[in-house]
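Marked as duplicate of an earlier ticket. Keeping the data here for the record.
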Amino acid sequence: MKVKDIMTTNVRTVSSDKKLGEVVSLMCIYRYSGIPVVDNGKLVGTVSESDVLGRMFPRLEDLMSSMATVDYDEQMLQYSNVVHLTVKDVMTPTVITIKPDMHILQAASVMVGRKFRRIPVAEGDQLLGMASMGDIHKAIFQTTIATML
């Protein structure tokens, strides 16, 4: 079975100049853990919850130099500063993708190796869809044992 057989093709995307406040709203309302970033029809990155929340962590250099404890409640207040940024300020510009004609177990192997739960499906810089670990698991279940139950 190929990725193109199980991928989601109606994918929500954002542009790199979009305000992060709008994007985190989408993430929270629709429970997206990440969204592909597309500019002028080209896949240029991804923005994830880790990208956003990572901006709130103290820098390692600051922790090492001050030897102080971290006030995590104070760090949470940084969120209001983060959401005023744009997607390009926090996105991951290097995108790992899979091809639509890849076998789903090969795609799962890429995802497991990179600790991804979802991955863009693309040909070059053209986003074609998204595949999730859940999509792959469901397809394997349906083609192997669901008919036996």
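See parent ticket for discussion. The domain at 3-148 is CATH 3.10.580.10 (CBS-domain).
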